[in-house]
């Protein structure tokens, strides 16, 4: 059985790796000359940057993949201070409580908000609602202040999204399950000793996360980079798939095809034979996002930078969604005596800022960093750099459900999907989904 994999990001590469280990025949086609998709590490002079994911959580599946690739010695754990997360409130950064008990004793939330969290234990569970948004769920369980100052910045930072739009059952189904099983999210968390799955190790690789995808690509025997799929057609007589690429017809016919592509790219390939599915996939929303990297002399920044970074609630009316304190988390990201910020501008709540000219963005980021971090008067950045994604992270809002249903309906015809818009937006989600699909294909 020959399998075509379209897309060479982390999902497609992981799938190919596990198919190869299982002895299955495949061809992987990737439009770009380099593998990895959104995972990119760039050395800009003395600065090592991540223009996609900045760090990863070490899930069991990801650990197994790194071990299989011989990359375990490359793992670099985040500094201990990275457990501290800050949120902008009343114009200054305050440490976010790390657990429900800490939340009740911390002054981060008002007494009214803390009482509302305690009352969550007695609030009745409502019947499951697949269309309930994150904001609606948290507002009815915990009250508006938790939505404004905990949920909103968290969702903006992780998903580049808006909790008023993202669906609970598509983003955090574990929380919905806790309400149904225990009648209370807090009670369920206490019985499970914390958040579902617990807090995993945060890590990077010593030479950047692109080491992962580069290593995967080198180990694949049938990967074709710089070849974009241009036509996908299923023959009616025998059900085999024909594929054409920018380099010409594919070398053979395929019994199975896997779309490891962004939803909008996959939609174009499905348009001819599956127009309804194509229309559903084309609706998946990817907001724009800009990352602005800014370096200062350490002596010019008053803030201790003793954490992972700081997030900005929309209610505070900030310019950026927040910043990661890159030089505090991992060594070797900036020269000694300097600090490096990675600031995120954009996402679904900050689209206008994401599309501003580069010079305006850099100036606005410097102004906001100066204001919140106590940058010395008159001090300028030693260095700034910008990276722009026109389409960043797929949003798991009301538009994702029809896309998921369309993808599932295509599987019986030998057309499968493994991509972040199907698996989940995190790299561990993509690795887990690709590994599972490889096992399914190998079994059947």
From TrEMBL:
The GO biological-process annotations, alphabetized, read as: heme biosynthetic process
User: What is the annotated localization of this protein?
Assistant: Cytoplasm
**Which coarse location class applies to the principal site listed for this UniProt protein?**
cytoplasm
UniProt entry tagged with the keyword Hydrolase: no
Q: To which pathway does this protein belong?
A: Porphyrin-containing compound metabolism; protoheme biosynthesis
Which key words tag this protein in UniProt? Cytoplasm, FAD, Flavoprotein, Heme biosynthesis, Oxidoreductase
Q: What is the native source organism of this protein?
A: Hymenobacter luteus
Superkingdom of this entry's organism?
Answer: Bacteria
Q: What does this protein do?
A: Involved in coproporphyrin-dependent heme b biosynthesis. Catalyzes the oxidation of coproporphyrinogen III to coproporphyrin III.
The cofactors named for this UniProt entry are: FAD
Could you identify this protein by its name?
A: Coproporphyrinogen III oxidase
UniProt enzyme class: oxidoreductase
Listed under catalytic activity are: coproporphyrinogen III + 3 O2 = coproporphyrin III + 3 H2O2
Q: Which GO terms describe its molecular function?
A: oxygen-dependent protoporphyrinogen oxidase activity
